[in-house]
Design a protein that fits this description.
alpha+beta; 5 strands
Length: 139
């Protein structure tokens, strides 16, 4: 799981790259994009909540795994915006990646759920894979 130190390293790398490449970064207050608020995450209860309940509360998942027995809802939290200078200018956005993963049993009842997060997309995929294959990240 990417902790606070992972976020600090990510920010330090982004600021170093920006400073030597003619970029500008403007930190923003954290802004969730399609974020599921924490109080809504608590609505899912193992043994009680059904697949239909989840679909009604959150809509179609962004990803489905394990023969449709795992739903993953993804969102990003924007941390900074800016632009890359040089011969080709381009806008950039720096964000943290989050997911809410839910596993169902054969009868369609929730077995477990958990939140996964990481700064980089590669680390995020690793965290999701760990949740899927190793019983999840407990929070």
């Amino acid at each position: 799981m990417a902790g606070k130190s992972g976020h600090v390293r990510g920010w330090a790398a982004a600021l170093l790259i920006a400073s030597i490449s003619g970029c500008i970064l403007i930190p923003t207050p954290p802004v969730g994009i399609n974020e599921i608020p924490g109080e809504r995450l608590k609505l899912v209860q193992p043994g009680k909540t059904t697949r239909v309940d989840v679909l009604m509360a959150y809509g179609n998942p962004d990803e489905r795994h394990s023969d449709d027995r795992v739903f993953i809802y993804r969102w990003d939290r924007l941390r900074a915006v800016g632009g890359i200078g040089g011969p080709v200018a381009a806008p950039i956005a720096i964000s943290d990646h989050f997911a809410f993963a839910i596993e169902f049993d054969a009868e369609g009842r929730v077995v477990r759920s958990g939140e996964v997060s990481a700064f980089s997309e590669a680390d995020f995929r690793k965290e999701i894979d760990e949740w899927l294959h190793n019983g999840g990240v407990k929070r």
